Amino acid sequence: MQRSFIAKNPSILIFLALLALFTLGVTVLSEGFGIGVISTSFVKTLGKTLCLCLIAVAMDLIWGFTGILSLGHFAFFGLGGYMIGMWLMYERTRMIVVDSLSQSEIPATQSEIVDAIGNQIFGVVGSSEFPLIWVFADSLFLQLLMVVLVPGLLALVFGWLAFRSRVTGVYLSILTQAMTLALALYLFQNDSGLRGNNGLSGLQNLPGVTASQDAVSMWFLWASAFALGAGYLLAAWVVSGKFGSVIKGIRDNEARVRFLGYSVEAYKLTVFTLTACIAAIAGALYYPQAGIINPAEIAPIASIYLAVWVAIGGRGRLYGAVIGAALVSLLSSWFTGGQAPDIPLGVYTIKWVDWWLVLLGLSFVLVTLFAPKGMGGLIDLWTDRRSPDRHGADLGPDAGALREQEAEQ
After folding, report:
1. What is the DSSP-derived secondary structure letter of residue 308?
2. Cα gap 328→334, rounded to integer Å
3. What is d(CA 344, CA 346) in angstroms, rounded to the nearest whole number?
4. Which of these, 25, 46, 38, 31, lies nearest to 212 by C-alpha position?
5. Residue 270: is its pLDDT beyond 60?
6. Distance (Å, whole) CA 253 – CA 89
7. CA angle centred on 333, ends 215 and 317, rounded to 5°
8. Cβ proximity of 145 and 117 under 8 Å
9. Backbone angles phi, psi at 132, to 5 degrees
10. CB distance 278 to 57 below 8 Å
């Protein structure tokens, strides 16, 4: 009997169990539903970290397993945030406008309400008319679909153009970075329809929800944990079967896989589009916890940071991507948040706010030179040292092959 991919990869159950214990622990210690040891602001930090772990899993799937170093996946992450942010900002503004106009003796017409909403949202860029891209902003269901469809369509079109031209290696990385830069520059314009440099703000306020931020922050942490668990499970399923063997073959020797008759471009396009959708879902959960999104979030440097996280954690290992993203994200919050104490050296004082990026870059160089397997390699060392315990498992690749007991006779 063929075992399921979870039975073949017990690390999946270990990861999901640790994620569940972490979520339960934060819930018990939180201010919203627990004893109040963990502050609401730190709960939001942890929730955002889970979202960054999810996009790191997507990055590991496209880079660590398929061999495509994409420097544009944060563009999909940001687009997912913009799509859900449009509904959040529209609905919150609509409720404020309706409440304000209801105090007037003359009832406002629907067109007057829409004009007032447009003036509130786009007045900061000198406009009051809704751009075409906001046509579904009044529908939560449709905007949730846009979270996946818009980044997915962009990835599908871009990937089809790039892969059919057989652009590979560093040239493909440059193309993905150029796509990200072009998108960011477009969004910086006031006539982009997304408020230019001002971005979308007030996203932490859920329309129609009267619960405190303590409770809302926990809701988002639960949603982020669920999304990470589901994304990890999906990625593990993708890389465990025949599809995973093919994309790992593409990573190791693309020409040989093509010679064997596989459509390399189709496999690449599938993984590229799938990981773009996963990144978009992560962004849709991240920015309501951050409260604001602007084009600076989509700058190419963000995608470079993402590659650094995966490299430090250990690419080609899904748990390594999670470890790298979680560790670097939390350390970044600690160092740049002013919590790390300065180190006086007499004539000069080391301020970690200024030196954090230097430390991160140095860590990346050291990992690349001396620990190419990243932090995930430490787990590999521990598992490799354990003696195998076959318990009569098949010695051959097929079920029913020569078994250990038979070989000993």
Report:
1. H
2. 10
3. 6
4. 31
5. yes
6. 47
7. 95
8. no
9. -60, -30
10. yes
What are 327-385's pLDDT values in tens digits? Answer: 988 888 888 777 778 788 777 877 777 788 888 888 888 887 877 778 877 776 666 65
**73 contacts: CB under 8 Å, gap ≥ 6:** 55, 58, 59, 62, 176, 275, 276, 279, 303, 306
- What angle, 0 to 180 degrees and rounded to 10, lies between the N-to-C axes of helices 73-101 and 264-290? 40
Tell me the two tokens of residue 147.
């979270």
DSSP for 87-142, written as a single string:
HHHHHHHHHHHHHHHTTSSSPPPHHHHHHHHHHHHHGGGT--SPPGGGTTTT-HHH
Q: What is the DSSP letter of 131?
A: P
Q: How far apart are CA 50 and CA 360, in angstroms?
A: 20
Cα–Cα distance between 259 and 244 in angstroms, integer?
A: 18
**For the chain, how far is it from start to end, CA to CA, in angstroms?**
24
Side-chain-facing half-sphere of 65: CA atoms under 13 Å: 30
Phi, psi of 228, rounded to the nearest 5 degrees: -65, -45
Q: Could you tell me the two tokens for 297?
A: 């979030």
Tens digit of pLDDT for each residue in 122-167? Answer: 888 888 888 889 999 999 999 999 999 999 999 999 999 999 998 9
Tokens for 316, please give them.
């080609």
Q: How far apart are CA 272 and CA 263, in angstroms?
A: 14
Cβ contact 48:232 at 8 Å: no
Tokens 């499970």: give the residue.
233
Residues 84 and 145: beta-carbon distance below 8 Å = no
Q: Kindly report the pTM of this predicted structure.
A: 0.88
Residue 105 structure tokens: 């003796």
